[in-house]
């Protein structure tokens, strides 16, 4: 499902996401929550002050490329309650959301998407990251 890669997550994001996993683990999104949980199990945890500015954290805006089609997409990674796909706000529980979490610019990942397909995504830029901007409590 995932490739060996270096995934980083902040302590704050890890705490909040673990609470989210507890709340959603037996609902209709249980399979998606399990994928997120597996990603977090692989992650290296850093303080918010020590996370590199090119890493996708919660509430970051990220530009990624679908390597098959070459299409670029700009999204903001958010919690499920804030997700609005028409505004480019993608939930961390969505397959692409959990795939992007913790990746840095230049990294790629193959990730299953609905319909039994797999997408290969590459992080192109992180134009906004809360931690890099000093916004540690978003």
From TrEMBL:
Q: Please list the GO terms describing molecular function.
A: kinase activity
Check the UniProt entry and state the signal peptide residues, or none.
Answer: none
The answer to whether the entry has keyword Kinase is yes
Coiled-coil-forming residues are none
Q: Where is the Regulator of nucleoside diphosphate kinase N-terminal domain?
A: 6-45
Keywords in alphabetical order? Kinase, Transferase
Gene3D superfamilies listed in its UniProt record: Transcription elongation factor, GreA/GreB, C-terminal domain
- One Pfam family assigned to this protein is Rnk_N
Transcription elongation factor GreA/GreB C-terminal domain boundaries:
52-127
InterPro entries referenced in this protein's UniProt entry, alphabetically: GreA/GreB_C_sf, Rnk_N, Tscrpt_elong_fac_GreA/B_C, Tscrpt_elong_fac_GreA/B_fam
PANTHER family with a match to the protein in the record: REGULATOR OF NUCLEOSIDE DIPHOSPHATE KINASE (PTHR30437:SF5), TRANSCRIPTION ELONGATION FACTOR GREA (PTHR30437)
Q: Which NCBIfam families match?
A: PRK05753.1
Q: What is this protein called?
A: Nucleoside diphosphate kinase regulator
What is the species of this protein?
Archangium minus
Lineage of origin = Bacteria, Pseudomonadati, Myxococcota, Myxococcia, Myxococcales
């Amino acid at each position: 499902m995932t490739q060996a890669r270096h995934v980083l997550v902040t302590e704050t994001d890890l705490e909040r996401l673990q609470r989210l996993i507890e709340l959603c683990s037996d609902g209709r999104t249980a399979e998606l929550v399990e994928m997120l949980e597996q990603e977090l199990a692989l992650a290296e945890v850093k303080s918010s002050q020590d996370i590199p500015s090119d890493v996708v954290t919660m509430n970051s805006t990220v530009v990624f490329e679908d390597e098959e089609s070459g299409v670029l997409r700009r999204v903001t990674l958010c919690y499920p309650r804030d997700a609005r796909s028409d505004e480019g706000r993608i939930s961390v529980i969505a397959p692409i959301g959990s795939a992007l979490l913790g990746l840095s610019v230049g990294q790629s990942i193959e990730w299953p998407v609905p319909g039994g397909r797999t997408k290969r995504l590459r992080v192109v830029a992180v134009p906004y990251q809360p931690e890099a901007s000093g916004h540690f409590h978003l």
